[in-house]
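SEQUENCE-TO-STRUCTURE ENTRY
===========================

Subject: a protein chain together with a token-level encoding of how that chain folds.

Sequence line: the amino acid chain in single-letter code, read from start to end.

Question of interest: how does this chain fold, as expressed in backbone structure tokens?
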Amino acid sequence: MKHLAKFLFVLILLLLIVWFYLSKTYPATPPQISALYFLEHIITPQQNYKKYVLGFLPYWRLDQINTIQPNKLSEINFFSLTAGNDGHLVTVTNGQTDPGWNGWEKQSTKNFLTKAQIMGAKVTFTVAAQDNQLIENILNSNTAQQNLITDVVDQIGKRNLNGVNIDFEYTGEPTDVLQQEFTFFSKKLATQLKQKNPHASLELSIMPLSARQPDLYDFKQIVQVYDQFIGMSYDYYGQTSDIAGPVAPMNGFTQGKYFFDVTTTYSDYLKVIPKDKLVMGVPTYGWEWAVVDGKTMKSKTYPTDSPNSYAAVISVKTPI
């Protein structure tokens, strides 16, 4: 009986230790579910790729979350949470829960991201600001900058995540002051993030022309600040294009065939970003347009205000 009692005591103690570890390491998911993910990981370990494979998880595709195999990815990034004019992450839009925040707060999302971490993938999330005025409001206010930094660091800490991706898509040429403010914001974010989470990854999404044309990014200043740069090498021709064209042409820019291409984008990036910090985006979709004549690859599309105009996404799983 003494041996049995001792065995049970040790077993209970071990279970409590495991329970505490899982609760601390994966706080967004109940420990009993995390334990099941560990068992699944033993059966299906992470695949060892020679390349870094990052997958985005859009909040509008969460209904297909169970089809994803996280053990085949190096990183999964939840896309996206939105920054508000005051810098705080947006939780309510038009009187309703913001769709990005709603997806982020779903228990099924939390559990999946925990599963991805247990399977060996980094788990990060994107903070998006894709309107010029919004970006200016944030960067021109020290209070708004600090609000955003505080919210980002808080989310990473609460869920024990692996990092964050900043996606500020400014169109046109920003002022020198705005570029300087983005650099200041980036450095401040990196400092506070690393203080709380030394191993957290700070990432930045950049557009195809970011290394060629004036942009928010002063690469000489920020290349050492960000751990990873994600090249948005897709949507060269997209929903609002006035002519039809490939979503990500590999070549054709130097010949005047396309306005830009992936190869040139990559070459431009390497002039300002170390190769080991660069991840190139690959689209798994294309666009189908209504075109005016339909005779050439670069046929003119109908104006967006025309009743004949439409642009539909064709994914790799769309039947043709």
In short: Residues 75 and 122 are 4 Å apart (CA to CA). The radius of gyration is 23 Å. Residues 2-286 form a domain with the TIM Barrel fold (CATH 3.20.20.80).
